[in-house]
Design goal:
alpha+beta; single chain; 1 helix; three-stranded antiparallel β-sheet; 99 residues
Length: 99
């Protein structure tokens, strides 16, 4: 007989606070493109940047524009769910603040 996982994990033992270090020099990477794929258990987020030509004219549009990949993140399903909920909560708050 298969056991199904509970929808919400049970809290056991002591909760431990996770705290971000602030005294590090973290690299900032500019990106303007993203691709997201999923295996069902993990999400692959690839962020990149396009080098757009300086001038487009009416008679000149490129056939393609290459995206230079900059970073790939792999995020588990549970963590992705928490990230999406956090982003939605913040976007909703920001939209309410603008009304």
């Amino acid at each position: 007989m298969e056991k199904s996982l509970p929808e919400e994990p049970e809290m056991r033992g002591k909760q431990i606070l996770l705290k971000w270090k602030t005294d590090i020099d973290l690299q900032t990477i500019y990106v303007n493109q993203a691709a997201i794929t999923s295996t069902g258990n993990e999400y692959y987020l690839v962020f990149g940047e396009t080098d757009l030509p300086v001038v487009f004219g009416k008679n000149f549009l490129p056939e393609e524009i290459l995206i230079n990949p900059k970073v790939r993140l792999v995020i588990g399903l549970g963590a992705m769910k928490a990230i999406v909920e956090l982003i939605l909560k913040n976007v909703e708050k920001n939209l309410e603040d603008k009304e």
